[in-house]
Structures are given as C-alpha cells and as structure tokens.
Amino acid sequence: MAKVIIGIGIPGSGKTTILKDFAEKYGYAYLCPDDIRAEHTGDAKNQTRNQEVWDEARRRVESFLTSGRIVVFDATFADERTRSAFLAFVRKHGAEKIQGIFIDAPLETAKERNAKRDRIVPEYVVERMYDNLSNAAADR
User: Fold this and answer.
1) Left (φ > 0), alpha (ψ -120 to 50) or beta: where does 62 sit?
2) Residue-by-residue DSSP string for 19-48
3) Phi–psi pair at 29, nearest 5 degrees
4) Are 78 and 11 in contact (CB under 8 A)?
5) By CB count within 10 A, which of 26, 29, 36, 110 is most buried?
6) pTM (2 d.p.)
7) Closest to 130 measured CA to CA, from 93, 94, 104
8) What Å distances lie between residue 131 and 13, 47, 71, 137, 138, CA to CA?
C-alpha cells in the first residue's frame, strides 16, 4: 500500500532523530528537504533554491509512491497551507494512506536543542512556527 507518513513539529523538537530511526527500523523511504537542499547547494541552510528543492522532493515522493513504497517525509509543516498542499499532492500521486506524526516539544526545549545543532534556525523562526502550530491545534 502506498503510504506517506509526515513529520510535523518545530525545529529542535526531535523530528529528524525520531523519523530517521523509524524509517530505518522499518525499511521505509526517508526524505527530508534539508538533505535535498544540501545536495543541491552544498549547505542545508541555503534557502536560495527552495522551489527547486521542493520540486525534487515531490518528484522523489511520487517515484516512491508509484513503486508502492512507504515514505517518511521529514519537514516542519508548521504552515497549514504548505501542509495542505503537500497532502493534496500525495493523494493525487497515489498515497492510499497518510499519517502525521506530531512531535510536540516545549518551546524552550526546542530552542535549547536548536542552539546546539549544526544548522541553527533563527529563534524568531522557531517561535513563529511554534505559534503557527499552537494556533492550528487551538482551532481544532
């Protein structure tokens, strides 16, 4: 069955650690736009070619779905429009099942973890993503 599992959570929440281990344990395809960004620009922090990065990510997802693979997709998905557009895309390209894994971490914990990473996300961006996800949860 073609299936997509998406990670949802702010930078520093632990998404990548959890999702990579999960995908590896079960032999699922693992995709992360940051990895593709590093392939295309040499630097996972480089945001100058995001359209190209996301086009490639969608191409890879489509390829995995076409071959019936389960895909674990690692992105923040803090913005509801981006999340909804991605879900529509995977449905259109054969995902029979979609699951979300929301990695909920306290903002201060995520900020501390983020500060220790190689690829530090600006604190105001982490806060904005946290607010977006908190507001989306409150609306439900």
Assistant:
1) alpha
2) HHHHHHHHT-EEE-HHHHHHHHHS-TT--T
3) -70, 135
4) no
5) 110
6) 0.90
7) 104
8) 14, 22, 27, 10, 10
Tell me the domain boundaries of the chain.
3-139
**Residue 40 burial by Cβ neighbours in a 10 Å radius (0-12, 13-18, 19+):** middle
Question: Domain spanning 3-139: which superfamily?
Answer: P-loop containing nucleotide triphosphate hydrolases (3.40.50.300)
Give pLDDT tens digits along the chain (140 positions): 789 999 999 999 999 999 999 999 999 999 999 999 999 998 887 888 989 999 999 999 999 999 999 999 999 999 999 999 999 999 999 999 999 999 999 999 999 999 998 888 889 999 999 998 987 665 55
